[in-house]
Each structure stands twice: as C-alpha cells, then as structure tokens.
C-alpha cells in the first residue's frame, strides 16, 4: 500500500531544508567573525588619497637596487640579509599578525656583519607580515614580507 504525501510531509521537508541552510549560515558566519581581525584601514577615503604616494615610495625603494630579505633564525629572532646596502645602514621592522589575533611587535636590529642584521626581540611562532625599513642617510628602502 502506497503512503499518501500530505501537507505534514511537505512541512517537514521545508523545515528540514531551511534548518540546514540556517545552520550552515550560522557556522560560516561564526567562522568568518572568529578569523577576521577587524579593520583593515581606519578610513578608506584617506587611504585612497595616500595610495599614489605609497606607489611612489615603492618605486623609490626599487630604484635603490637593494635586495633585502627576512627570515626566522633558529632562536626565533629575525635575521635580515641586505645585499647592495651601504655600510652603516639601519634596519627597523614592525611585525603584524595577519588576522590581528596577536598585537603588533616592533623589532629593533643590531648589525651581525656582512650585510646581516639580527633582531633584539624574539617573534612568537606563527605567520607574520613583516614591514621592513632599511635606511642609509637620505635613502630609505621599504618593503613587506610574509613570514611563516
């Protein structure tokens, strides 16, 4: 004997279907909120007005011909290697967590010989975006590297 399809069956199908959709949306919304650190820029209009200046500074950095790289050392301090950089250059950096879960960390560097600089501070394990600034006299090189 065949069972009849009733309004109760249809109501159950609709409730189950919408329940799945709402459940998935809640899980995805929670995942999005828990992994996004918040504001990317404080004021997007002001950032847009500064954009061309940022491009000009990036071009000036490239024109110096300096090759600057950062990596994590065995002791969790940052090691910067700088090729073609004049003697006596100074290095500064700010490391920020890409998701904003950890506070920004300012790094100070001491010369380690042969175009190398070693940070005084230890950077916690994990992924970081390191903004470097190498200065020699009036010349300033700025760059950003992803560090894992």
Describe the 3D structure.
The chain has helices at 7-35, 44-64; strands spanning 67-72, 77-83, 90-96, 105-113, 116-122, 128-136, 139-147. The chain is of the alpha+beta class. It has two domains: 1-35; 44-147, Sandwich (Immunoglobulin-like). A seven-stranded antiparallel β-sheet has the order 1-2-5-4-3-6-7. A hairpin with a 2-residue loop joins strand 4 (105-113) and strand 5.
Topology:
Layout: H1 7-35, H2 44-64, E1 67-72, E2 77-83, E3 90-96, E4 105-113, E5 116-122, E6 128-136, E7 139-147
- Kindly estimate the percentage of residues that lie in beta strands according to DSSP: 35-45%
Radius of gyration: 26 Å
In total, the number of domains comes to 2
**CATH arch. level architecture of the largest domain:** Sandwich
Biggest sheet character: 7 strands, antiparallel
> Total strand count, please?
7
pLDDT averaged over residues:
90
* First-last Cα distance: 65 Å
Strand arrangement within the widest β-sheet reads 1-2-5-4-3-6-7
The CATH topology of the largest domain, please? Immunoglobulin-like
Q: Low-confidence runs (pLDDT<50, min 5 residues)? A: none
H/E order of the elements? HHEEEEEEE
Could you name the key traits of this structure?
single chain, 148 residues, alpha+beta, Immunoglobulin-like, 2 domains, seven-stranded antiparallel sheet, elongated
Summarize the entry for a quick read.
With 148 residues, the protein is α+β, with helices and mostly antiparallel strands. It has 2 helices and 7 strands, in the order H-H-E-E-E-E-E-E-E. The protein folds into 2 domains: 1-35; 44-147, Immunoglobulin-like, CATH 2.60.40.
């Amino acid at each position: 004997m065949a069972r009849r399809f009733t309004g109760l069956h249809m109501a159950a199908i609709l409730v189950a279907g919408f329940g799945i959709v709402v459940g998935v949306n809640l899980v995805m919304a929670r995942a999005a909120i828990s992994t996004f650190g918040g504001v990317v820029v404080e004021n997007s209009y002001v950032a847009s007005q500064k954009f061309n200046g940022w491009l000009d500074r990036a071009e000036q950095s490239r024109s110096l011909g300096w090759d600057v790289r950062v990596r994590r050392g065995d002791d969790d301090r940052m090691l910067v290697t700088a090729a073609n950089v004049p003697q006596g250059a100074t290095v500064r950096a700010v490391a920020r967590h890409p998701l904003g879960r950890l506070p920004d960390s300012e790094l100070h560097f001491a010369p380690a010989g042969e175009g190398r600089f070693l940070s005084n501070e230890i950077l916690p394990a994990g992924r970081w975006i390191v903004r470097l600034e190498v200065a020699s006299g009036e010349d300033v090189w700025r760059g950003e590297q992803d560090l894992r």
